[in-house]
Amino acid sequence: MRLVFAGTPSAAVPTLRRLAAEHDIAAVVTRPDAPLGRKRVLTPSPVAHAADELGLPVIKAARLDDDATAAITALDVELGVIVAYGGLVREPLLSTPSKGWINLHFSLLPQWRGAAPVQRALINGDAQMGASVFQLVPALDAGDVFATRVVAVAPEATADAALDALALDGAELTAEVVAAIADGTARAVPQKGEASLAPKLTLDDGLLDWTRPLSEVFARFRGVTPEPGAHTTVDGIRLKVLEATPSESDVALAPGAFTATKSALLIGTASAPLAVTRVQPSGKGAMSAVDWWRGQRDTENLRAGA
After folding, report:
1. CA distances (Å), 148 to each of 54, 106, 122, 142, in order?
2. 39 pLDDT exceeds 80?
3. Does residue 261 surpass a pLDDT of 80?
C-alpha cells in the first residue's frame, strides 16, 4: 500500500523501518532540524535520519500547513500513518489519503490522551502500559481503535526505557493494522471507558516532593527521567537527580534528610528512603551522588527540598 509517514523522535523510527520494509512509503514528514547540544548544532530528527538511510523522500515541516498539505496531496497516497510527529493533522489534510490517517499512541486508550502518555502513566504508578492504533479524527486522540496491546515494562524503567519498549511493540502492532487495512479486514471500535489526559510535562513536573511516600517519589522520578528531569533543591539551589532506585536500607530518615552509604546517597521520604546514585548540581557536570555529598559543608543540617 502507498503510504505517507509522519513522525519525529526516535520512538517513531521502529514503525517507519517496519512499514518501509512492507509498503511503498511515498514520503516521510518530520519536524525541521533542531539545535542540539551546548553548541546548538542544527541536527535532523531521528526520523529524518532514518528516512535518509532508507532512501525515502523527506518533507520537513514545523506544522502541517497549506504548503505541507499541498505537498502530501500531490503524493496521492492511500493511507497516512503518524507516530509522535509533534503537530496536528487538520482538514483538508485529514481526509486527503483515501483511507484517512491512523495514529500509533503509546497508551491504552482512552487512558492518557495527549503528548506525554508514557510519562504520565509512570508518574501515576499505572500497573499496565501499552500501545493503541486508532483512526485519526479532529478531536484529541479520540478516534475509533483498531488494536491495542499491553506491553511489559521493567518495574524500575524510566520514561526513555519504557518508551523504547513500547516503540518496538507499537511498530509490530501498527504493521498488523496497516496490513489489515490493505486487505480490507481491519475493523475499528469506539473507545470505551473514562478518558484521562496526558499534557506535555513542564520543568515543575520534575520537582520531587519528599513528603510523599517512596512509591510516589520514585514513580515521579521514573516519569520525568530523562525529560524534563527530576530535581530537588538544597539550600535553595537546584540539584538534578539523574539516577535513583528505591532503597533496601532500613534506616529511618525524615522527609528530605540525607545520609550516605558507600554506594548511594539516601534521601528520606514519608516512608522508606530513595537511593540516589548520580546527580548534577546547578552549573556543573554530572557526578556521583556520594561525591557530591562529601563536598558539602554542614551536612547535618542539609535538607532536600529546602
Report:
1. 28, 10, 18, 14
2. no
3. yes
